Every structure is written in structure tokens, then in C-alpha cells.
Amino acid sequence: MKMSHILAVLLALAATLPAAERPNILVIVADDLGYGELGCYGGKDIPTPNIDALAASGTRFTSGYVTAPFCAASRAALLTGRYQTRFGFEFNPIGAKNAAPDIGLPANEKTIADRLREAGYATGLVGKWHLGGTAPFHPQRRGFDEFFGFLHEGHFYVPPPWTGVTTWLRRKTLPDGGKGRWTSPDGRTVWSTHLNTNEHEYDTDNPLLRSSQPVDEKANLTDAFTREACDFIGRHRAQPWFLYLPYNAVHSPMQGADAYMQKFAHIEDIHRRIFAAMLAQLDDSVGIVLAKLRETGQEENTLVFFVSDNGGPTKELTSSNAPLRGGKGELWEGGIRVPFIVSWRGKVPAKQVIDVPVTSMDVTATALDVAQIADSPARSESKKNADKNVRTTLDGARLLPRLTGQTTAAPHDTLYWRVGKKNALRHGDWKLIRDGGAWQLFNFAADIGETTDLAAKEPARVAELSALWNHWNAEQIEPLWK
User: Fold this and answer.
1) Strand positions, DSSP E, 319-427
2) Is 440 helix (H, G, I), strand (E, B) or coil?
3) Quick count: other Cβ atoms within 10 Å of Cβ 459?
4) Which residues contact 437 (CB under 8 A, 6 or more apart)?
5) Do 425 and 332 form a contact (C-beta atoms < 8 A)?
6) Structural contact between residues 82 and 359, judged by C-beta atoms closer than 8 angstroms
């Protein structure tokens, strides 16, 4: 029997299982949330009771990773369960690149939504896409039955004239021609030149969409995405469903809603106060979505993931990645180690903390496992990389055996990263990293902050680990764009 026939039989069998035996799957993604901000990860000054409660109801991983230190490439791996460098999605499209006809998640890569929909799941995406802004890459051509959100890398949270929020904008020059900060007379707008750049044109050619039709949304986007997520959960309660809920909070542009700004009036720095307002609003939204699961009797039949797409950009948002080094855009731990929470009441033990390395690619692998869907080829080819021996199965691992104590083994021996000349590897407690120069070596057993380079003392280990990275790198393809 051909492999395609076997796969069809397996999918048909999965689709005939009772709905109660195939859990709903909810994947919540925060945008640019630093490792050290949540209360359950050591954050002190911004209460996050709802996300903390989600962690307490299940498992909190302290070595949870994403595959890239920025938005789009990280999401490409999460949704396919494969290193994005296997199919050329190595760099982050921003601005006008989002509308380039050849930039997006390659059409011959299967998403988690493709696979779950083939097995009878209702599939929905509410929030940020950032995996291609033209017709071939639209979410509803990538396995999602429903889509409410935007296609590019960011979006203002409320429409002009930004009523009901305080807005912080990056600018190269203040109104008086100088540098520093400027606040409008009504206190609603703050300009800052500290990054010497202007705020991105997030909304240009990037409307909020329902399916493919523009929406005139008046609500704050964090609230709107929460509303739409709850609606999806309520409408599909009679069938297994998959909801991908990638909020754009706490990504810039920074806009703090009035009620939350008042809550954090004690924070003197307006920059930090806006960030606190945005994070608290996100936390409340997570709480509302989880309450919808309880209200509709779906809490015990829903596997919930919560992750960030990368580490926080500290100078831009004030975000904390403590106790880690670096942040967004870097392969230091602060750029790639993220909050990573898994909850499934009655199936995953509560108040569990696990320190073995896991990766966002495990989300797809675990979802397919609990939905009883066999891994299948997800072939990626291009003329540019036709000579590469491209792996066609998942790089993610099934987490349920580790979560439930069936095994104490780590899901991965080694994790890898490549962003141009920035390269890294984690193998056990060892981290190998370089940024266009020589390899540096760190040991997390004594140095989670990557402060002491051990490469000179451990040349044999550097040689061993760099050989692992080179072997993995030989399987990757050239980036399809830069």
C-alpha cells in the first residue's frame, strides 16, 4: 500500500474517534514577551495572575525555546513543527516585504492547521499572522477555516486618533528639533528618540481582516481578539477544535489603555507604565479566554499552550529577560528562551516545573499526538535548493510522555539555531554560540546568564559541539530571502 493511502486511512480513523477522545487544542502566543516579566517566571512589578494560574494548573518549562529570536521565523517553525531553516524562512519580513509576492510560509509546507483540519477539527486563527501578506499565503489557504486579524508584523491597537490610550512612539527627532522625550499637552502621546528610529508604519497596507474583508474595528485589538476567540470557542463546543491565538501584545506600537494606565499610576516612568498596562490587559484577556472554556464545559477537554514568540526587546519596550543575557534579535538566551506553559486539567499534573529543554516545534508534534494523527511528509523543495537532502518529518517532539511522567528523558538531545552569521546550539547544559566570529561556550549548570566563556578551557568540547552544529547545518537550505 502506498504511503499516501496509509496516511489517508490513518486520518480517516482519527476523524471517526469520538470528540471526547480528541481534545481541543488552544495555542496562545504572546508577542515580544520577555522571559522575566510574568509572575510565575520571577516578575515582581506587573501582576499576571491569570497566566500564573494557567502555569499552576499545569506545567511550566524553565528551558522553553523558540527557533528564532524574532517574530515570523519563530512562528513558521511553531506552526509546522520543523526548523524554519529547512524551508528557507530564516529572516524576518517587515514593512513592504510583507507584501512581496514571493515572501511567506512556503505553500508546500503543511501547517498544524492543515493536519488537524484533515482529521476533522474546526480550525481558527485570531490575531497576528506574519507568514505572508499576499493571496497564496493567506491563513485560510494554510489550513484555517476562520481568520480574524492582520497579516503583517504589527498593528496599532486602536484606530486613529488613538482615543482611550496613551501612545509611545519612536522618533528620530522631537518637535523642537532636539533629542530625548516629548509629551503632548494632553499627555496622550509621547515621542522618544532613544532608539534613533521612527515607529514602523504598521497599519500601511495592513488592514484588520475577517477572512479577507477589511473590518472597521473600534475595540482595542487585545480586547477584540479575546472577544473573537471566545466566540470561536463557544460556537465549536460540539466538535474538536484548534484555535491559534497569537496576540500582538506586547509588541510595539506601545499603547496603554486608560483603565490599565490608572492601575499602574504608581510607576513613574511613563514608558514602563505603558508596558505594564499592555501586559496586564493581555493577562486579563488570557483569563477571559480560559473562563470561556470553563463556562462552556470544555476546560478538561482542552490542551492549552502559552508561549512567547521570542524574547523581549528591552530598550524598545522596557521588557525584562532576567536572569538571561540579551534579548530579541539575538541568540543569547534572552532572545530565544521564553515563557512556555502547558496545561490540560486532569491529564497534565498541576504545579509542575520541568527544566529540560523543549521547543516551540513541540507544540505541533504534541498536538498531532493527542489528536491521534500520524506524522506525515511535509516536503519542502525549491529550485534554489534542489540539491539539499531536506528532511520531511517533524523536528518537534511529543511532550505528553514527559509531562505525564511516563519518561524522565529530555525530549531533545540538541537544539540548533541559525540566523545568517548568528549561530547557536544547546546540548544538555552546554551552549555554543557565535556571531560571525569564533565559537563561545557556556555551561548553564553554573552560568545561566552566559557570563563566562569556557571555549579556551574546553577546546575538545567546542570541537565536538561545533561538529554537531555543522552536521545539522548541512541539512538546512539557503534562505529564500534576506
Assistant:
1) 340-343, 352-354, 358-359, 414-419, 422-427
2) strand
3) 12
4) none
5) no
6) no
Q: Note down the domain range covering 135.
A: 3-160+209-411
Give the total number of structural domains in the chain.
Answer: 1
pLDDT tens for each residue of 281-291? 999 999 999 99
Is residue 478 assigned to a domain?
no
- Listed in sequence order, the DSSP H helices in 96-236 are 112-118, 221-235
* 278 in a structural domain: yes
Phi, psi of 341, rounded to the nearest 5 degrees: -125, 140
Report strand pairing: 189-192 vs 302-308. unpaired
Q: Cα 305 to chain center, whole Å?
A: 10
Residue for grid cell 485570531 = 126
Q: What is the mean pLDDT of residues 52-58?
A: 98
Ranges 78-87, 304-313, 388-397: which has the least confidence:
388-397
Give the active site residues: 71, 130
* CATH assignment at residue 105: 3.40.720.10
pLDDT at 12: 42
pLDDT over threshold 50, residue 380: no
DSSP state of 337: B
CA dist 369 and 363 (Å) reads 10
Q: Grid coordinates 491563513 are at which residue?
A: 139
Cell of 117: 483540519
Q: What digits encode the pLDDT tens for the residues 429-461? A: 999 999 999 999 999 999 999 999 999 999 999
- Burial (Cβ within 10 Å: 0-12, 13-18, ≥19) of residue 56: middle
* Polymer length in residues for the chain: 482
CA distances (Å), 330 to each of 288, 337, 422, 462, in order?
33, 11, 8, 20
Q: Of the ranges 19-28, 243-252, 360-369, 428-437, which one carries the lowest mean pLDDT score? A: 19-28
CA-to-CA dists, residue 448 to 310, 412, 414, 431, angstroms: 17, 19, 17, 10
- Distances in Å between the Cα of 320 and the Cα atoms of 94, 269, 312 are 24, 15, 7
pTM higher than the cut 0.90: yes
Q: Which residue has the cell 480550525?
A: 123
Are 70 and 93 spatial neighbours (Cβ–Cβ below 8 Å)?
no
> How far apart, in whole angstroms, are the C-alpha atoms of residue 239 and residue 391?
33
Q: CA triplet 257, 260, 266: central angle to 5 degrees? A: 125
CA distances from 376 to 80, 81, 359, 368, 460 (A): 11, 11, 20, 10, 38
Task: Give the dihedral sign, CA 325/328/332/336.
Answer: positive
Q: Is residue 62 part of a domain?
A: yes
Residue 357 counted as domain residue: yes
Instruction: Note whether 241 and 121 are within 8 A (CB).
Output: yes
